[in-house]
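queue> pop job 88
queue> type: inverse folding (structure -> sequence)
queue> payload:
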């Protein structure tokens, strides 16, 4: 019995398929430079999240 749901070992060009072997969730960390930039430039350069549609001219060219 052949199971067509499982991917073949090779693609149509005969190249071996790469399989995902594991997933690792890594915790992100900010560098001191990134933290400094967020603290000092977010009030001027950042765009706060809103459910409303963003008015690009108003947000970027005041």
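queue> result:
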């Amino acid at each position: 019995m052949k199971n067509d749901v499982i991917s073949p070992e090779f693609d149509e060009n005969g190249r071996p398929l790469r399989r995902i072997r594991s997933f690792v969730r890594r915790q992100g960390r900010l560098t001191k430079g990134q933290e400094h930039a967020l603290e000092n430039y977010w009030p001027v350069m950042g765009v706060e999240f809103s459910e409303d549609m963003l008015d690009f001219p108003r947000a970027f060219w005041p």
